[in-house]
């Protein structure tokens, strides 16, 4: 009998094939091993599982719905378009799925403080929410550019009691926020937990975040079958670090006839003219490299260092990608597509105007790709992971694109 994929990966050292691992100083390696051991222990604990399920049901509002986008389907006159509504998860995105789990793990380990980075602010809001729920301190590091761009989420974090630390060095976006948060964690790893915001970082973080996010795919699989009597032909999800994508892909990896398509940000580039620094499509244009404690595929400058990147979506503005996505792409199980800023904003307004759902700019990448391929796939069914809602983005959108009338 074939061993299910999720039972095989990662291995005990945190590798997905050659990707992953823990490339960190010896001083912090001990802490990573303690986190891994604690997680492996509570992951088998019936009381922990029961508490997490209760939190998901009574606090998060899970399961989130599966929605048939009939107006989009009718307009694009091809494949049926379905949305997994993670925008209706409490705090407005998929991020709370792993934040509540990470906070529960921190509580089990006797930690007093949660530290994290955030780009679009959704992870920061979710972690601040989890910290408030469990009565813990919370410190969120965020690049100055993203603070200005996503200020509604900064306000939410502060209302929830989190300390927001502006990051003013380098590109002042997500990469630098990770650097800053990890440095803060190193100052007191005994009393704090670095609750990373995606399936990146040293082992065991990619495994932990993936496992907590799998609830998205598990729910979607059952819901889709109950609604249609079959499974989707294609699943699309945006990929920055990749937590929402692995969350929905994970439940379908062994269903090899289903196309799993990760959609990366092409930014200001066009598909026929890709310019370094104008996009953040790591899997499409990167090469193997180590950053933030893990081996994966990353975008590099002429000196081999992480390249400057751009995306209209702050949550996708990262020069690498989770090691599990690098592995799945390398073996051909997932396919990688790109969508640029212009296509993304058009999809943002399409969903808003046609279905009454305002999506996050990050999620709009996955939707834009679905809209691009739907007309040629009549009779097929596409499932889009709508990973977050766009409340956080509306000021930025209106300032830069108006109300979409000219798009």
Structure notes:
With 407 residues, this protein is α/β, with parallel strands linked by helices. The chain has 2 domains: 152 residues, Rossmann fold (3-Layer(aba) Sandwich), CATH 3.40.50; 220 residues, Rossmann fold (3-Layer(aba) Sandwich). It has 16 helices and 14 strands. The termini are far apart. The model has no long low-confidence stretch (mean pLDDT 96).
For the residues shown, what is the average pLDDT? 96
Output the CATH topology of the largest domain: Rossmann fold
- Based on CA inertia axes, which overall geometry fits? globular
Q: Determine Rg (CA atoms, Å).
A: 20 Å
Task: Name the helicity range.
Answer: 40-55%
What's the number of structural domains? 2
Oligomer: single chain
Structural class: alpha/beta
Number of strands: 14
Text of the CATH class of the largest domain? Alpha Beta
Q: What percent strand? A: 15-25%
SSE arrangement, N to C: HEEHHEHEHEHEHHEHEHEHEHEEHEHHEH
- The order of strands across the largest sheet is 3-4-14-9-10-13
Largest sheet: 6 strands, mixed
Low-confidence runs: none
Keywords:
alpha/beta, Rossmann fold, 407 residues, 17% strand, single chain, six-stranded mixed β-sheet, 2 domains
Q: Nutshell version of this structure?
A:
The chain has 407 residues and is α/β, with parallel strands linked by helices.
């Amino acid at each position: 009998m074939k061993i299910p994929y999720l039972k095989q990966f990662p291995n005990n050292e945190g590798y997905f094939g050659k990707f992953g691992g823990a490339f960190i100083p010896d001083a912090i390696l001990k802490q990573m091993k303690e986190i891994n051991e604690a997680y492996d222990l509570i992951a088998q604990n019936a009381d922990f599982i029961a508490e997490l399920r209760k939190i998901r049901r009574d606090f998060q509002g899970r399961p989130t719905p599966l929605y048939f986008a009939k107006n989009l389907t009718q307009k694009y006159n091809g494949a049926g378009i379905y949305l997994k509504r993670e925008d209706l998860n409490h705090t407005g995105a998929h991020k709370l799925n792993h934040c509540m789990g990470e906070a529960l793990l921190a509580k089990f380990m006797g930690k007093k403080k949660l530290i994290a980075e955030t780009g679009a602010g959704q992870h920061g809001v979710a972690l601040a929410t989890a910290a408030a729920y469990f009565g813990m301190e919370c410190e969120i590091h965020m690049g100055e550019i993203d603070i200005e761009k996503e200020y509604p989420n900064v306000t939410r974090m502060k209302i929830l009691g989190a300390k927001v630390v502006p990051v003013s060095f380098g590109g002042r976006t997500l990469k630098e926020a990770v650097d800053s948060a990890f440095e803060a964690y190193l100052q007191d790893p005994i009393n704090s937990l670095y609750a990373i915001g995606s399936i990146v970082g040293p082992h065991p973080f990619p495994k932990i975040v993936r496992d907590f996010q799998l609830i998205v795919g598990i729910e979607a699989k059952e819901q889709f079958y109950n609604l249609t009597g079959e499974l989707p032909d294609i699943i699309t999800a945006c990929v920055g670090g990749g937590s929402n994508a692995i969350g929905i892909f994970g439940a379908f990896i062994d269903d090899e006839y289903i196309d799993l398509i990760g959609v990366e940000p092409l930014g200001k580039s066009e598909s026929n003219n890709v310019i370094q620094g104008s996009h953040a499509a790591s899997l499409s244009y990167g090469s193997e490299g180590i950053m933030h404690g893990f081996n994966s595929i990353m975008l590099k400058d002429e000196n081999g260092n992480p390249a400057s990147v751009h995306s209209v979506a702050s949550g996708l503005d990262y020069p690498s990608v989770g090691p599990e996505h690098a592995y799945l792409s390398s073996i051909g199980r997932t396919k990688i597509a790109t969508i640029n800023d212009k296509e993304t904003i058009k999809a943002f307004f399409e969903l808003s105007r046609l279905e009454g759902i305002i999506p996050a700019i990050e999620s709009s990448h996955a939707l834009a790709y679905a809209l691009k391929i739907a007309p040629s796939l009549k009779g097929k069914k596409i499932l889009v992971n709508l990973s977050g809602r766009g409340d956080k983005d509306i000021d930025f959108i209106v300032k830069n694109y108006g109300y979409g009338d000219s798009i």
